[in-house]
Design a protein that fits this description.
164 residues; alpha+beta; Alpha-Beta Plaits; three-stranded antiparallel sheet; two-stranded antiparallel sheet
């Protein structure tokens, strides 16, 4: 049986999170659950005037490589919606050969474990309405920028200090 995976060139990932959003929408994942998540490596200074800051999309245990889509010959939704075109889907042997051509790539072969990863979802809200609520983005003009959905504390992301 052929094993399939995702090859991600994180050198050019912009961190747009279109893979996260498209996956959550395609699979109707609740707040606080992801099929793929973009992680930050940095920013930190390597030497004067040279910073390291990588965005690395990482599939979670909820990723099944969009089995329904791929069974029809389509690519996974994260690959389809990747704005920087840095994700490739295919047989692991072919993707591994592509890794030799360029550094700063990672190869993932997700192990779909929905029961372990999903658990029971319980809303933290007091009211039980099923309405969707709009997300809000708060931006402080100087010092620090925070992004928050105001739905769940696990969704809050912080970006370190801006040039002050």
């Amino acid at each position: 049986m052929t094993a399939y995976g995702l090859l991600i060139d994180y050198e050019y990932c912009t961190g747009c999170q279109s893979c996260e959003v498209s996956c959550k929408e395609e699979h109707d994942l609740p707040v606080g659950k992801w099929g793929i998540r973009v992680h930050d490596d940095g920013p930190w200074e390597i030497e004067e005037d040279h910073m390291n800051w990588n965005k690395i999309p990482v599939p979670t245990d909820l990723c099944d490589l969009c089995a329904e889509r791929t069974s029809k010959g389509r690519e996974p939704i994260c690959v389809h919606h990747c704005l920087a075109d840095v994700m490739k889907f295919g047989p692991v042997t072919e993707l591994a050969a592509l890794m030799e051509e360029k550094p700063k790539q990672v190869l993932f072969v997700p192990q779909f474990k929905p029961y372990e990863a999903r658990g029971k979802f319980e809303s933290k809200r007091k009211d039980d309405s099923n309405r969707r609520r709009a997300a809000a983005i708060e931006v402080e003009a100087y010092g620090q920028v925070e992004f928050a959905t105001h739905r769940d504390d696990s969704d809050v992301r912080e970006v370190t200090e801006l040039n002050s």
